[in-house]
Amino acid sequence: MSYQEIIHNQRRFFDTNTTKDISFRIRELKRLKSSIQKNEDLLYSAIFNDFKKSSYETYVSELSIIYHEIEFSISKIKKWSKRKKVWTSLTNLPAKSYIIPEPYGTVLVIGAWNYPYQLSLVPAIAAISAGCTVVLKPSEIPLKSSAAMAKIINQNFSPDFFKVIEGGVQETTALLKIKFDKIFFTGSTQVGKIIYQAAAKQLTPVILEMGGKSPAIITQDVHIDMTAKRLVWAKFLNTGQTCIAPDYVMVAASIQDQLLSAIKKQIEIADYKIENQNYTQIINQKNFDRLKGYIDPDKVFIGGECNEIERTITPTVLKDVTLSDPVMQDEIFGPILPVISFNSIDQAIADIKTLSKPLSCYIFTKNKSIKNRILTEISFGGGAINDAVMHFIEQGLPFGGIGDSGIGNYHGKAGFEAFSHHKSILQKSFLVELNLKYAPYTRSKLKWLKRL
Ligand code: NAD
Asked: Which residue in 177, 245, 286, 303 is deepest, having the highest Cβ count within 10 Å?
C-alpha cells in the first residue's frame, strides 16, 4: 500500500469518529501495553543488537517510561478530555463559554535513534490519548529496534489507526510531502529545520524536540560527592547519548579539583563496561569518529580510550576546557564531559548565554539567590536543581525545548494537549438580546457599551 493510501485510510477512519470515544482510546492504550509486554524479549534483543544496550538499561530508560506513560494517560484521559468551562463576559450574558479538546486528526511521529522505543512510542501514546490516528516513522539508525517496533505495532493494530512506516531520509521526505494534521519530530536541530520547512508548505503545526548543549552549573557550597554521583550517572547513562545529558560542567574554580576527583571516584565505582550492563556502544562509526575528534589528549583528566573495533569510548572527562575548544562548538552526544571553571557567577551566566538556548540546565547549589538568578537569566527548555536528567520522568512537568532546542512540549497532560486543538465555544440562549451592537449606532448605545 502506498503512503498516500495509508494516510487516506487513516483520515477515513478518523472521520468515523471512532477515536473520539474515550473507551476506544483506553482499549488501544491497553493493547499497546500488552503488545509490548508480550514482546519484551524481542525489544531487548533488538536494541542489544543495535548498540549493545542492556535489558536493564532498556527497561529503566525505555520500557518503564512507556508503561508509566500509558498507565498515567489511561487514568487521566477522561479528565483531560472534558469540556472546560470558562468565564463569560457581561456583554454576552446570558451564555456560557467552554473549551472542547479536539484531536488534531492524522498525525506523523518521527523518532530519534538514541532511545528508539520511548522517543517513538511516548509521543504516539500522547497522540492516541488525544484521539488521533498515528503514522510512526522510527529512526532507521537502530535498524533492529525499528524493525521490532514495526513488527509489534503493525501486527497488533489496524493500519487505519496506528501504523509504523520504517525508513530513513528518502522515506521521511516522501512522507513529508503528504498533508498531516500535526507532525511531532524528535532529532537534531539541523533536521528539525527541514521538517519545519516541509510542514510550513502544508501549514501543518509541529512539535520539534531537539537538542543542544545543556550545562551543569556547580557552585562552591554543594555536597560534592552527591553532585558527582548524580552528574556521572546522568552523563554516562546510554553512554552519553542522551539529549538531556549534562553536556558540559561549569564549576566554581575553588572546588574544581575536589569535584574532578569525586567524578573520577564515581566513574571507577560504576565500572562502566558493556559486560557490566551499564554501558553501550557508540551508535555508529560516524559518531565514533566525531566524538574521537573532540578528545584533546592534553586536556584528558580521565578516560579518552577509544576502541574502534568495539566502537566504545571510555568515560572521558576533559579539564581546563575553554569555550573556543572544538568540544564546545556542538552538542557532544557521547561520553565526554568537558569541565570549565569559573571565578564569578556573572561570567558563567554570560558564557552560557553565548551558546544557543539549551534543552536542559542543571543547577547544583545551596545558594538561593544564585539559583534564582540562573532560573531568571538563562533561557532553557527545562531542568533540575541539584540533580540532572531526572526531571524527564516527571509527568507533571511539560518536556520540551526553546529556540534551537525545540518548539512545544509533551509528557503527561502536555502530551495530550500537544495533539489536541482547543475548540473554543460561546453558547448563547434565545432568552434576551441587547440591542447595543446593532445599527443604528447612537451616542447612548456607545456610552452603555463603554460601561459594559
Ligand atoms: P536526526 O535529526 O539525524 O534524525 C531524526 C529523525 O529524522 C530520524 O527519524 C531520521 O530518519 C530523520 N531524518 C534524518 N535526516 C532527515 C532528512 N534530511 N529529512 C527528513 N528526515 C530526516 O537525529 P538523531 O541523530 O536521530 O538524534 C540525535 C539528535 O536528536 C540530537 O541532537 C539530540 O539532542 C536530539 N534528541 C532530542 C530529544 C528530545 O527529546 N528533545 C531526544 C533525543 C534526541
From this structure: 245
Q: Are residues 277 and 182 in the same domain?
A: no
> Does 322 lie in the same domain as 176?
no
- For a substitution probing ligand 1, which of 136, 177, 243, 407 has the most ligand atoms within 8 Å of its CB? 243
Bond preceding residue 398 cis, omega within 30 of 0 = no
Domain that holds residue 102: 3-210+402-425
Provide, for the chain, the percentages of residues in helix, strand and coil under a 3-state DSSP scheme, each rounded to the nearest 5: 50, 20, 35
- List CB contacts of 356: < 8 A, sequence separation 6 or more: 189, 212, 213, 403, 404, 405
> Which residue owns the Cα nearest ligand 1 atom 27?
187
Query: Could you tell me if 377 and 243 lie in one domain?
Result: yes
* Whether residue 178 is found in the same domain as residue 252: no
Structural domain contains residue 450: no
Does 447 reside within a domain?
A: no
Residues 163 and 226 in one domain: no
Same domain membership, residue 206 and residue 220: no
Domains identified in the chain, total number: 2
Residues with catalytic roles:
209, 243
To which residue does cell 521490532 refer? 148
Same domain, residue pair 68 and 98: yes
Structural domain includes residue 280? yes
Residue nearest ligand 1's atom 14 by CA: 169
Residue 368 and residue 418 in one domain: no
Ligand 1 shell residues, CB under 6 Å: 110-114, 119, 137, 139-140, 168-169, 172-173, 186-188, 191, 194, 209-211, 243, 331, 333, 359, 401, 406
Name the residue of 145, 191, 197 whose CB sits within 8 Å of the most ligand 1 atoms, as the mutation to test its pocket. Answer: 191
Provide the CATH number for the domain around residue 183.
3.40.605.10
All cell numbers assigned to 141: 539508525
Residue keyed to cell 552527591 = 226
Sheet holding 206-209, edge to edge: 162-164, 133-137, 106-110, 182-186, 206-209, 406-407
Please give the chain's pLDDT, 452 residues, in tens.
899 999 999 999 999 999 999 999 999 999 999 999 999 999 999 999 999 999 999 999 999 999 999 999 999 999 999 999 999 998 898 999 999 999 999 999 999 999 999 999 999 999 999 999 999 999 999 999 999 999 999 999 999 999 999 999 999 999 999 999 999 999 999 999 999 999 999 999 999 999 999 999 999 999 999 999 999 999 999 999 999 999 999 999 999 999 999 999 999 999 999 999 999 999 999 999 999 999 999 999 999 999 999 999 999 999 999 999 999 999 999 999 999 999 999 999 999 999 999 999 999 999 999 999 999 999 999 999 999 999 999 999 999 999 999 999 999 999 999 999 999 999 999 999 888 899 999 999 999 888 87
Atom 23 (ligand 1): residue with closest C-alpha? 187
Instruction: Please report how the helices 345-352 and 368-377 are oriented relative to each other, as an axis angle in degrees rounded to 10.
Output: 20
